[in-house]
Design a protein that fits this description.
The complex is a heterodimer of chains A (464) and B (363). Chain A is α/β, with parallel strands linked by helices. Chain A is built from 19 helices and 11 strands. Classes of the chains: A alpha/beta (464), B alpha+beta (363).
């Protein structure tokens, strides 16, 4: 048995699925098949409810925004200003650009009608007659899939004027981005949708008061919108029973990196991280019997954590795949659920190189509007590049720490934080790997630091 | 503002002031004045929507308001945060703010060229002042600084993109003062640049104001380029009867001797233009006879420009004549010896910086 191979036994219980439950059905992306398998039933039900009741159901469901921040969706909806005579808009954020995250792509590509039904119900609940889907420019083929689904829905009376005789009008427009990560930030997205340069706006005012064309706007993630369908189908209370604590419902995770079965999985947030990585139902373990070194559990901007802190919290409890447990311990020893881009690194991966890659990404994607992010991201990348290529100095590590500290929280939008966190976490947990790179400039060009002690159990002081 | 608009009490660095609702923290601090006022590199009170970008005006809100006393979790851009009743703000009394500001100054200087010795803005540069007041003595940046290809944006305005700190003021100026903006931001991140795309000239008759709003030497007056250091010229307030409908002809002349080297708008104590002026006043009226001179401009004592000491000066009497009892005999006249010192040539009239060719005597 190769070293590090783990033999684990789990109680095989299939997780609850509410979004991808029809994933196995051939042709589910077409209207007829979707309708045959219970599609648009939630919309039918929703049209018999008052919009305020739908918002109430979503509130009861405890659904949290699936785009990364995890803000309660029902609460967001109730913040929407409703001034007389001003149109309101629902904008769906399909600009899924976070490295490691591709769950929305899966939903839109294979379940477009689920998505459109969600959009329809949400639009009805929010009173949006014109709804926009702002889709990532690189997803070049998906707008066609969505347009086709929109046409099918329209032909069957689910979009357009007087939908199903309810008197509610709704049009959905798909708008392609031009390839900027920053346009996934809701106010930058709104600017871009308006045809301007995608620079984040200063908040307040929040989009709920002044969004697209200064009209009240709700911006939601694709998965959030899709989750509205099962919520209406089963009722908010039932939906809230899935999951754990404040992490209700199911979450789509896109897994990539060193796992046997990368892909998109729906979990009900009751399983442990260890089970998720090693069970055959999900990731299926790490290829070639390699050992787990580190993981970024929620998309590239959330803190990277070493294996020992990933599987167990600093308190020694089993870490679960949900919002609370993943962030247990704060940034000192935890991470975040984020957008659900689960990136697994095995013992052959170099954290320094990995951090450099991310720093390069954020440097490239910074909009350049505010100084700390515009200048700081490039600086961090250059320093990390030096360290990676054996030209670093010991003082560079403290300098990196200082730079990220001065970017974080001091920028207009969260991109600054997103750029700072991975660097901070890498230094916090993998400082010795950085030091090894600097002290062994030649050796570090030929081999990796390896697993070192990153999977060793952590001694927990009794008072912690 | 309606008459019932309530006054909000805000405390900045333990100094309280009552301001109308809707006032930003920065403007409240400016009303108090002095050290309490955060520096601002991108905010410009005369330009709508400006501010929030440079992050030098970050302050700590230690108490949100009387109703909601929770402190704000992050440092706030004081230029874009409006005061609430009972708000308590810490500027220079907050270590976090001082540290963050030091960081921002370092970021702003990271790629800024140290070409102050040849920069026309030197002496009236907001970034110089900011660095003196809030920066470190040295940078920790060890990499090649970012440069841009030089772009010609017309006969009046010189664009030095390498010096730009991306305050966006010139963009707002063009948007709000002219009917057609010819320049904007191209690219993104650390390569974002002010440019005109396809080399258009900035030729709107109000566009010269971008020079005045630019906090650094990125946009400078081509007609004044390399002519003189600003602290050698003497600012005087002057006016003329300008025919332009939006310009009232109130300007500041930058003179040396009888020559007008430069014309700018008048600026207030925060370095902001009081009234925007038209291109004709700025670029084409460079004779003393074009203007009615009102008197020396008030320049802050701390400014390098005040070193010219031209207000209330007395000419030192020449005593040599009385001492030796006769006119001293000049052994040489510099004007007849030097090739580049001919008093009949006005430096302000020479195209571009003075060059030895300009003094050539045709023989």
């Amino acid at each position: 048995m190769p070293q590090g191979f783990r033999l684990l036994t789990f109680d095989i219980k299939m997780g609850v699925k509410v979004l991808l439950d029809n994933d196995h059905i051939e042709g589910i992306r077409y209207y007829d098949t979707y309708r045959k398998h219970g599609g648009y039933r939630a919309a039918e039900k929703a049209f018999k409810m008052a919009p305020a009741d739908i918002v109430e159901e979503v509130k009861k469901s405890g659904l949290r925004g699936r785009g990364g921040a995890g803000f309660p969706t029902g609460m967001k909806w109730s913040f929407l200003a409703k001034p007389e005579g001003v149109p309101r808009h629902l904008v769906c954020n399909a600009d899924e650009s976070e490295p490691g995250t591709f769950k929305d792509r899966y939903l839109m590509e294979f379940h477009p009608h689920l998505f459109i039904e969600g959009l329809l119900i949400s639009s009805f609940a929010l009173g949006s007659n014109t709804t926009y889907v702002y889709i990532r420019g690189e997803y070049a083929w998906i707008p066609d899939i969505l347009e086709q689904a929109i046409t099918e829905a329209k032909n069957n009376g689910w979009l357009g004027k007087n939908i199903q005789g309810t008197g509610f009008d709704c049009e959905i427009y798909v708008h392609r981005g031009a390839g900027a990560y920053i346009c996934g930030e809701e106010t930058a997205l709104i600017e871009s949708l308006e045809g301007k340069r995608g620079n984040p706006r200063m908040k307040p005012p929040f989009p709920a008061i002044q969004g697209v064309w200064m009209r009240p706007t709700v911006v939601n993630n694709v998965e959030t919108i899709a989750a509205v369908v099962p919520i209406i189908n089963m009722g908010g209370d039932e939906y809230a029973k899935i999951g754990m604590g404040k992490s209700t419902g199911t979450k789509l995770l896109s897994v990539c990196g060193n796992v046997n079965k990368p892909g998109v999985y729906e979990i009900d947030m009751t399983i442990s991280v260890e089970e998720f990585i090693y069970s055959d139902e999900y990731c299926g373990g790490i290829p070639k019997g390699k050992r787990l070194k580190a993981c970024i559990p929620g998309g590239s901007s959330v803190p990277i954590i070493p294996a020992n802190l990933l599987l167990k919290t600093a308190k020694g409890e089993t870490r679960m795949m949900n919002y609370e447990s993943l962030s247990d311990g704060g940034f000192a020893s935890g991470s975040m659920m984020g957008s659900g881009g689960f990136i697994v690194l095995d013992e052959d991966q170099c954290v320094v190189r990995h951090t450099m890659t991310l720093a390069r990404f954020y440097n490239h994607e910074s909009c350049g509007q505010c100084s700390p992010c515009r200048e700081g991201t490039g600086w961090m990348y250059k320093i990390l590049k030096n360290i990676e290529y054996g030209k670093g100095k010991m003082s560079d590590i403290d300098l990196l720490w200082d730079i990220q500290r001065r970017i974080e929280g001091n920028t207009i939008c969260p991109l600054g934080d997103a750029a700072a966190w991975p660097v901070a976490a890498a230094i916090r947990h993998f400082r010795d790997e950085f030091e090894w790179h600097i002290l062994n400039p030649d050796e570090s060009q030929r081999r990796n630091f390896g697993l070192a002690h990153y999977a060793d159990p952590i001694h927990i002081p009794a008072s912690a | 503002m309606s008459e019932q608009a309530p006054n909000f009490k805000v405390t900045i660095d333990n100094i309280s002031i009552e301001v109308p609702a809707g006032t930003t923290i920065l403007n409240a601090a400016r009303m108090i004045g002095g050290e309490v006022t955060p520096p601002a590199m991108c905010y410009y009170s005369k330009l709508k929507d400006s501010g929030g970008k440079c992050r030098t005006c970050l302050v700590e809100v230690s108490k949100g308001s009387e109703k909601d006393p929770r402190p704000m979790p992050k440092l706030m851009a004081s230029c874009r945060t409006t005061v609430m009743d009972g708000m308590e703000v810490k500027n220079i009394t907050s270590e976090k703010v001082v540290d963050a500001r030091k960081g921002v100054v370092e970021f702003l200087l990271l790629n800024h060229p140290l070409d102050c010795p040849v920069c026309d803005q030197a002496g009236e540069c907001d970034l110089q002042n900011l660095s003196y007041e809030h920066g470190s003595e040295a940078t920790r940046y060890e990499f090649k600084r970012r440069t841009f290809e030089k772009e010609d944006i017309g006969p009046y305005i010189s664009l030095h993109m390498t010096r730009c700190i991306m305050c966006f003021r010139c963009v707002y100026t063009a948007d709000q003062l002219t009917d057609k903006r010819e320049h904007g931001i191209l690219e993104r991140g650390d390569h974002a640049q002010i440019s005109t795309m396809l080399n258009k000239a900035l030729d709107h008759d109000f566009i010269g104001n971008v020079i005045d709003v630019c906090p650094v030497g990125a946009l400078t007056d081509k007609t004044f380029r390399f002519k003189n250091r600003v602290w050698f010229t003497k600012p005087v307030d002057a006016h003329r009867d300008c025919k332009h409908e939006k310009c009232n002809g109130k300007v500041r002349l930058w003179m040396r001797g009888e020559e007008v080297f430069r014309v700018t708008a008048r600026k207030d104590q925060f370095g902001e233009v009081e009234e925007f002026i038209c291109n004709e006043c700025r670029f084409d009226k460079k004779e003393t006879k074009d203007w009615v001179i009102e008197g020396p401009s008030l320049i802050q004592r701390s400014s390098v420009i005040s070193q010219g000491h031209y207000v209330g000066t007395k000419k030192t009497p020449i005593l040599i004549n009385t001492v030796i009892g006769k006119e001293p005999k000049h052994l040489l006249d510099i004007h007849s010896i030097s090739d580049v010192n001919r008093p009949e040539i006005d430096l302000s009239k020479i195209e571009g910086p003075a060059h030895s060719d300009d003094f050539k005597v045709s023989k």
